[in-house]
Design a protein that fits this description.
The protein is α+β, with helices and mostly antiparallel strands. It contains twelve helices and 17 strands.
């Protein structure tokens, strides 16, 4: 269903049940209700994480973790429009609003392929998720080792944006796990001399780009880091810091700017896989001992900010009139002073309200346990296991699409724009399934695609597919691919 862009069980009503059923060796595909029951049954086993770890063993065989030497980590905010759950507010950058939402934290490899994901329960920061969950998952999946006594070089390098920026945090990751970090530097105030920058060819996700780069040493929070800067056309200097001493300067820049592959991955899954769709309805409780920012404290802080903003605006008008009194004619002064008196009255009133809010806020705790929140407003979470399960399935599908697109790319003139589109055409187009019980083969005859150049490309990869000698699951039949188009 995911490969065929059938985005939820309800859309099965618009599909041919017999045709889809044959693809999985059944007379017909399960109906919507049956399929939802199967998802529920699988979710109740709570084996999604172990399923993901088993797949990682296949994707990154032992002693061959080269693609997992660099791992990109980023969070994705999924907006919640329902009424059953009480979720904390999160800032949604694409809508520029604070809305009820859940957070998913994804790990992608150096090629942009998804590796794993973890769910946030409350308003955890990326830094907290990396230390508390992602590092443990990396150890479970055997991508890194917990024993670092004899390890001198980085086990892997984590690449992320400024959200997780903190030099002490970078040092803890290195000291405890021998994990290096690569990110943008915050609060850069100085500029390096432009004459020190050199033109370097940088490989960014297979594309060669000329960049003006310069490297130096910097000390942040008492820890030493390598700092690489890129000089832009406008003169802006983008600062990158890392504690990985084995990387060349062009690789530091290439790996950092390749972070956009993960943003593109999110965008593609939202458009083609209905990434943010709820899988199952219902809520689950969260550990009552967990601490959150006191909602009442946050509410008073918000009011305090608004009052201070209003007070500053009125003060600006008030002080401007003081200058007018010095410069204007005598006959206009009474009118100005009357206005000043009104502004002064408003300023005094706002100052009084501000002081009352400050005193009221002092009586509240900054952070409280979930158990201390009112039951009706207490935070909970959406059911997570089914979402994790479906995300793992979507990882498999995205990787399958990407692998086929990579095979097709050499045979397409405009591969960057067309390769994924052609793969989706192949998946969605009709085909004949012809079993041969005597020869124990299953012939898959692909129908003609939208353009002749696509048929030519498919004709060339059919041979590669047949050389794989794939057996149709649940049978002894070898798959043989053919094309029906006359080329």
């Amino acid at each position: 269903m995911a490969l065929s862009c059938i985005k939820n069980p309800e859309q099965l009503k618009l599909s041919k049940p017999g045709e889809i059923g044959r693809l999985i060796g059944l007379d017909r595909v399960p109906e919507m209700k049956c399929l939802r029951e199967k998802i529920k049954l699988l979710s109740q086993q709570e084996q999604s994480t172990q399923f993901n770890n088993s797949l990682i063993d296949l994707w990154y065989p032992y002693n061959n973790h080269s693609d997992a030497d660099f791992l990109y980590i980023d969070g994705h905010v999924r907006i919640y429009y329902g009424q059953k759950a009480n979720l904390p507010l999160k800032f949604v950058s694409r809508q520029k609003l604070c809305l009820s939402a859940t957070s998913e934290f994804w790990v992608n490899d150096a090629r942009g392929m998804p590796v794993m994901m973890v769910m946030g329960e409350l308003s955890e920061k990326l830094q907290t998720i990396i230390e508390s969950q992602i590092t443990e998952r990396l150890i479970e999946a055997k991508l890194i080792s917990a024993k670092i006594d004899t390890i001198e070089h980085p086990q892997c390098t984590l690449v992320f944006d400024r959200e997780a920026y903190e030099p002490a945090f970078f040092h803890r990751l290195w000291d405890k796990y021998r994990i290096a970090t690569l990110t943008y530097r915050k609060n850069v105030k100085d500029k390096w001399a432009e004459k020190d920058f050199k033109n370097v060819k940088v490989d960014v996700m297979g594309q060669c780009i000329n960049m003006h780069l310069c490297e130096g040493k910097t000390e942040l929070g008492g820890y030493s880091f390598r700092e690489v800067r890129r000089l832009g056309i406008s003169g802006h200097q983008t600062a990158i810091i890392t504690n990985n001493s084995t990387l060349k300067i062009q690789e530091v820049a290439g790996r950092m700017f390749a972070r956009w592959s993960q943003e593109n991955f999110f965008r593609y899954l939202i458009q083609d896989y209905d990434f943010d769709k709820m899988i199952s309805y219902g809520v689950e409780t969260i550990d009552m001992e967990k601490q959150v920012v006191n909602p009442q404290y946050r509410k008073l802080t918000h009011k305090l900010i608004k009052i201070r903003e209003k007070k500053r605006r009125i003060e600006a008008k008030f002080y401007l009139m003081m200058e007018q009194v010095m410069d204007d004619d005598l006959d206009k002064i009474p009118k100005i002073t009357d206005k000043q008196a009104q502004y002064k009255l408003q300023i005094d009133q706002l100052a009084k309200e501000e002081n009352n809010l400050i005193q009221e806020r002092k009586k509240l705790q900054t952070r409280i346990k979930l158990a201390q929140m009112p039951e009706k407003k207490r935070y909970n979470k959406l059911k997570t296991e089914s979402k994790i399960l479906m995300n793992v399935i979507k990882m498999i599908c995205y990787r399958a699409e990407s692998s086929m697109a990579a095979i097709l790319a050499p045979y397409l003139a405009n591969a960057d724009k067309e390769k994924r589109m052609v793969v989706k055409q192949i998946i969605k187009s009709n085909a004949d399934l012809i079993p041969d019980y005597k020869e124990q083969t299953l012939i898959v005859r692909l129908y003609s695609l939208a353009a002749n150049r696509y048929n030519i490309a498919v004709k060339k990869i059919v041979k590669l597919l047949n050389e794989s000698e794939t057996i149709f699951p649940g049978t002894n039949f070898k798959l043989i691919f053919e094309t029906s188009s006359a080329i």
